[in-house]
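User: Please fill in residues for this 390-position structure.
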């Protein structure tokens, strides 16, 4: 009989630091209490908190880990270590500015938590990899005794969902993230890369901010959904598996990261292998959460057929022209070295135009558009197959 991995599922309806702290402490109690925490965080270990800082966002933004949530986590962790750091490398913009604007830096100063911009890196070789053996990652992420990831519950254009596994992509410094998109244009390989990355930095624990989640055109331009949820656990795949079931995926394997994790025997994924303590999935599940991508990957014995059909059904980035502010960020962040996106003049306004024969469908343009002017458009075949349904 396979031992079940325990995940704490908690209900919290507002960003109140006292209430969130109480819920996080309740979650740790459900997982094993003080003894559990002392094992997870040996006294005065070097602890790295890894929030989601996708971009430079305001305090009330649903794009990033909420600053009140961040404070509640610190208040719990500081009982076990006074050597706490936090950091991230955003997809665009300066990490220090991002941490300052969204309120995390102010909270960190209050509790003497140190900030690391993830600019100093180390080269690492991963012997037992699924796909990627050679790595360059933020030094502190690799050297910390304990890495606690603090993802935001959000939809994602390429990965369908971004949570505890994908949050560590921020451990890849700066523009090197674009290189990984170019090297891994296939979504399945990209997800294997994310799993290998978590093996490199040895992510120890996840506390997911799902009090107000992002639905629809995530991970930057979606809309808020009050999920009133905090999810905690050592297995980041089990945390994500619990999260995707809550937002509307009946089968966790319908999401690419968890499908690759299951196929590779990397972590706990299936519901029957996860013990959810606290609230129940049925009580916390949303019936109206707008998914960014529906399930539906096609696998055939002949890989040529598989690649052909995937090309036929793959969605494309789509411009909402009225929202475009002609900033050109989409072209700037495209990992294909500006071969894909050109800025063209239409009606006295410069707008992006894609060369879809070159586009690798990484959706970095959609992910980082500051105006929410890019969403995902499905092909005629994918609509016939029902893959555009939310």
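Assistant: Residues filled in for all 390 positions:
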């Amino acid at each position: 009989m396979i031992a079940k991995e325990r995940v704490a599922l908690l209900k919290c309806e507002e960003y109140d630091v006292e209430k969130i702290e109480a819920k996080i402490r309740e979650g740790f109690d459900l997982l094993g209490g003080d003894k559990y925490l002392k094992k997870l965080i040996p006294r005065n270990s070097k602890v790295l908190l890894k929030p989601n800082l996708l971009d430079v966002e305001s305090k009330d933004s649903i794009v990033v880990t909420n600053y009140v949530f961040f404070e509640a986590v610190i208040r719990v962790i500081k009982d076990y270590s006074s050597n706490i750091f936090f950091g991230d490398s955003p997809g665009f913009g300066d990490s220090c500015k991002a941490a300052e604007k969204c309120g995390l830096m102010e909270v960190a100063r209050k509790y003497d938590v140190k900030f690391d911009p993830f600019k100093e890196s180390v080269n690492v070789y991963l012997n037992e990899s699924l796909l990627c053996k050679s790595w360059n990652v933020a030094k502190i992420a690799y050297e910390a005794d304990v890495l606690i990831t603090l993802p935001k519950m959000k939809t994602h254009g390429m990965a369908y969902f971004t949570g505890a596994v994908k949050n560590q992509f921020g451990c890849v410094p700066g523009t090197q993230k674009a290189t990984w998109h170019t090297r891994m244009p296939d979504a399945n390989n990209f997800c294997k890369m994310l799993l290998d990355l978590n093996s490199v930095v040895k992510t120890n624990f996840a506390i997911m901010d799902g009090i107000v989640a992002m639905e629809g055109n995530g991970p930057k331009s979606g809309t808020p959904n009050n999920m009133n949820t905090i999810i905690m656990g050592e297995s980041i795949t089990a945390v994500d598996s619990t999260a995707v079931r809550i937002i509307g995926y009946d089968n966790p394997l319908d999401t690419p990261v968890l499908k690759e994790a299951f196929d590779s025997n990397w972590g706990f994924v299936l519901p029957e292998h996860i013990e959810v303590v606290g609230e129940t999935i049925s009580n916390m599940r949303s019936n109206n959460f707008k998914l960014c991508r529906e399930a539906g990957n096609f696998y055939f014995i002949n890989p040529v057929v598989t690649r052909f059909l995937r090309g036929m059904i793959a969605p494309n980035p789509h411009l909402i022209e009225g929202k475009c502010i002609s900033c050109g960020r989409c072209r700037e962040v495209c990992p294909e070295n500006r071969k894909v996106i050109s800025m063209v003049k239409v009606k006295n306004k410069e707008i992006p135009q894609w060369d879809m024969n070159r586009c690798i469908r990484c959706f970095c343009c959609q992910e980082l558009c500051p105006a929410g002017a890019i969403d995902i458009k499905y092909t005629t075949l994918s609509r016939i197959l029902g893959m555009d349904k939310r």
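For context: The domain at 5-284 is CATH 3.40.50.11440 (Rossmann fold).
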